[in-house]
Amino acid sequence: MACAAVMIPGLLRSSVGTIYTPATSLRLTSSTLRHLTLTSVMKSKRKTDHLERTASVVRREVVSAAKVCGAADESPSVKRLHLLVADKDFSFKAGQWIDFFIPGVSVVGGFSICSSPRLLEQERMIELAVKYTNHPPALWIHNQCTLDSEVAVRVGGEFFFDPQPADASRNLVLIAGGVGINPLLSILRHAADLHRERANKGRGYEVGTIKLFYSAKNTSELLFKKNILGLVNEFPEKIACSLHVTKQTTQISAELKPYITEGRITEKEIRDHISEETLFYICGPPPMTDFFSKQLENSHVPKEHICFEKWW
């Protein structure tokens, strides 16, 4: 579940084992959507509720019907969902989250989108990866959600990467902890799409270099490993990653070993990437985001080049 913290608006799929259903029409009517969102807002009263925590964060007005068209286990504790959103007025920027309205569940979920905007443009799909918790929306996704389940979604968030073609080229450093990889994977995938577009058409935004630092408890909890390494191998001159594990107890596979460091992401690793052309995006547990954002400020990185979101 994502909570937007502080963000200075910046510039800035392959799913193995996913089951798909045909893109049939969605049945949620406008009146049903209005009733669903109003009821959820009225009943959603937890102190750490997503709607309360993000009340001051910018949202789009559009609430769109969505249908679950794919589901798979991404890790022992995280389930990946593909949602079909047929509404052409629904769009998002890489890094943003959605309000997630579930019929029969009074609490509204908040989940970062991990797919690229290009997937939505081409196939009308978005992708989520939701960690198992006792929070009602997460419980529903893990225990009750099925193919063709219908929900409603609304885009929000000020943590995004959305460069325009004429913008100056920027390098990106993405710092992720645990399930905080979700919005950063969206940004990484979007940057890869922009690079493909420029390479194929000779126009569009010029992406700088991208370095992903990603930490999790062990390799089984490093989400989207194959997707990340696929992009690293596709764009070796542009994209690099450093995967960290803090409590690894099993042998690390030969495929992953060149990219794995045992231990936490260090301040020095991040400091080595500071430059005037670099933007830093951080998403993870609050202590992690606080630590790295403070260290970057202490290293005289301009605040407008530090973008972060906290996962609670």
From TrEMBL:
Transmembrane segments: none annotated. Keywords: NAD, Oxidoreductase. Pfam families: NAD_binding_1. One of its GO terms (cellular component) is mitochondrion. Signal peptide: none annotated. The gene is OXNAD1. One of its GO terms (molecular function) is oxidoreductase activity. Residues 50-164 form the FAD-binding FR-type domain. The lineage of its organism: Eukaryota, Metazoa, Chordata, Craniata, Vertebrata. It comes from the Eukaryota. InterPro entries: FAD-bd_FR_type (IPR017927), FNR_nucleotide-bd (IPR039261), Oxidoreductase_NAD-binding (IPR052128), OxRdtase_FAD/NAD-bd (IPR001433), Riboflavin_synthase-like_b-brl (IPR017938). This is Oxidoreductase NAD-binding domain-containing protein 1. CDD domains: FNR_like.
